[in-house]
Amino acid sequence: MTAALPPPAGSGQVVAAPEPQPGPEAQMEPARQAAHRGLDWLNLYVANIQTGFGPFIAVYLTSRGWTQTAIGVALSIGTVTAMASQVPAGALVDALRNKAVVAAVSVLAFTVSALMLALWPIQLFVYLAEVLHGFSSCTLGPAIAALSLGLAGNAALGGRLGRNARFASIGNGVGAALMGACGSFVSERAVFFLTAALTAPAFFALRPLRRYARLQPVAESPPHATGWRHWAVILDKRLLLFSLCAMLFTFANAPLLPLAAADLTSRVGHLASLLIGACIVLPQVLVALGSPLVGRLADSHGRKWILALGCAMLPLRGMLFAYVSNPWAVLATQLLDGVAAACFGIMVPLITSDVAGRSGHYNLALGTVGFAVTTGGEPAAYLVEKHFARFLEGRDPFEYETIWDQMYFASQYYGR
Question: What is the pTM of this model?
Answer without folding.
Answer: 0.80
